[in-house]
Amino acid sequence: MELRRFFMGLMAAMPILAGCSKEHIQPDDTYAKKGIAAVVNSNFSLSLFKYALVATTYSDTLSQPGPYTLLAPSNDAFKAMGFSSGAAVIRVIDSMRVIVPYHILRGTIRLDSLPLAFNQPLGAINGQLVYVTHWINSRDTAVVVNGIRVSTRDKAATNGLVNVTDGVLSPYTYTNVQMAVSGDPSLSLFNAAIIRSGLAADYQSGGPYTVFAPANTAFNAIGIQTTDSIYKMDPVYLQALVKAHVTAGRSFVYDYILKADIPTNSYTEHMLSGINTTITLVADPLQPGRFSDINIQNENAGTAKASLLGKNVLAGNGVVHSISRILTQ
Known about the structure:
FAS1 domain; alpha+beta; 329 residues; FAS1 domain-containing protein; 2 domains; globular
């Protein structure tokens, strides 16, 4: 949902490329050249990404000596975003010019050889960082980038390596988590709570943080309807409320899936207010035995579980998830 919003914003601000003929966009062998570009060109499961590479001319970049490490979204990743054909990819060419370089890392980086650790920062050629988790437990051996699983890893090319991801990576547009919260209209009441509590400056610097931001509907459910109501509340009370929804570290949903205790499928997260929350895995309805989501609950107060309404919004100093309930209520 957040990546869709990213595309929609770019499309609204930039003209859509029109009048492209099939001859100009067809990513056939004449565009493959060599190296990583040739590997992508020969992989049917990356046919939609070929269009993005050719249209943005990054196929030329990936034919150079490099070396580079490519994180290539699969066809299914593009289709999940509503791009079912090469023509659909071409129509958002300006968006692709922003998206594609975030999938290209400098150097030959074997993801399977990275240390077993969460969210290791690696530099993309657009100047931003991606965060790679390499983890092994009794039911999974996983490499995950920005919370997105890497399904095929370390395929060799003459100028680097090719990996296939299950989703499209979104470059971050917010320098910090407070800006990410303020940029989402559905989180305006929680943003007001951050400001009124006096904590905005804290979350604009430092970190990293993981924020579980209650949606406006969560505040509405306890009788808080407007930002004016928030600004009339006790800042000390709001400090405790805000900190109950923030934890130290950068954690994507898939990180919790990997961290969770195997028998209970749960994980205890410690919030900055001092409360403990229980994160419970949610089964993937399409893949028996796997998990695709989480719930979160304040284990101290015994409140009901909050479900995720939005997830994995990356900012410069952390990640924001939006949730359906206030954890202290």
